[in-house]
Design brief:
With 285 residues, the protein is α+β, with helices and mostly antiparallel strands. Helices cover 49% and strands 12% of the residues.
């Protein structure tokens, strides 16, 4: 029996528009997922408090390949789980169950750190100084029932969650912070993250990090004065290099789950954001 995924693979452009990945990158991800999924299933079936014998209980109605495609379609299109259920012939409860099952498995594949960034041996030998870029992005959330002021972003005039990322000059995401309420300032988020960078790394940010020591920052216009021509040229060159991280955010937000108002439980935002970062690295880095 031909699965839905195999039918879509025959139409490569459609497949990429639905999942955000090329067929080749999807196959790579699927091969890495299979052993993790099988190991997770073994643990699930051998839980000490499990009352049914292995093989008993509700069976999953989709093969793993279709489960992965359904998850990627959810990330990419952010359609309702009821609609996904119609597409894959599942009840929306089963859609939610299978999506939630795969979130942590993808996170094990991508393993993007929060604080400690390491360089490969090749990177350590190729250059004496490497420039990384840091910035934060916000996503609107539904107005929370509690601690509304905590999540209200004065910049966006909305209730938001904020994440900070670090990228290299090629746009590869090297670090992602945990999701934090949007009220928190970029500099405070950076200070609390306590990034650990190799000695060869030079960090570049924008004026949101004004006051951070040992970071390349643009010149701030003095009150009542103008920047010199040299300072303007410096800022222009810095912006030209920093555009890499802005492009990274743009590519991540083709996944509508990060672009639209976040409707999922807030506790899931960090793992979903990190998974999208991993998908970005798989596709573009």
């Amino acid at each position: 029996m031909q699965t839905k995924t195999k039918r879509f693979k025959a139409r490569k452009r459609t497949f990429r528009s639905l999942t955000g990945l090329s067929v080749e990158k999807f196959n790579t991800l699927y091969k890495e997922l299979v052993p993790l999924y099988e190991e997770s299933e073994k643990k699930r079936l051998k839980k000490p408090k499990r009352q049914r014998e292995p093989g008993g209980g509700r069976k999953k109605e989709l093969v793993l390949e279709d489960q992965l495609m359904m998850l990627l379609m959810y990330y990419r299109l952010y359609i309702s789980q009821e609609f996904l259920g119609i597409l894959f012939n599942l009840h929306n409860c089963n859609v939610s169950r299978q999506i939630n099952y795969l979130h942590p498995l993808l996170a094990k594949i991508f393993r993007i750190p929060t604080r400690k960034i390491k360089l490969s041996e090749v990177e350590l030998t190729e250059a004496e100084l490497i420039e990384f870029f840091v910035d934060a992005t916000e996503q609107q959330i539904q107005r929370p029932k509690h601690s509304q002021k905590h999540y209200y972003s004065g910049k966006k005039k909305k209730h938001t969650l904020k994440n900070q990322i670090v990228t290299d000059s090629k746009g590869k995401i090297r670090s992602v912070t945990k999701s934090t309420p949007g009220k928190k300032h970029d500099k405070k988020l950076f200070d609390e993250t306590k990034l650990k960078l190799p000695k060869q790394v030079e960090l570049t940010g924008d004026l949101g990090y004004y006051g951070v020591n040992q970071m390349n920052l643009p010149h701030k216009k003095p009150k009542g004065k103008q920047l010199t021509q040299i300072e303007k040229q410096f800022n222009k060159e810095l912006s030209r290099r920093r555009i890499t991280i802005e492009h990274t955010f743009g590519k991540m937000k083709i996944y509508q789950i990060l672009s639209q108002r976040f409707r999922y439980p807030l506790s899931k935002h960090t793992i979903i954001f990190k998974n999208i970062a991993g998908l970005h690295n798989l596709m573009f880095a």
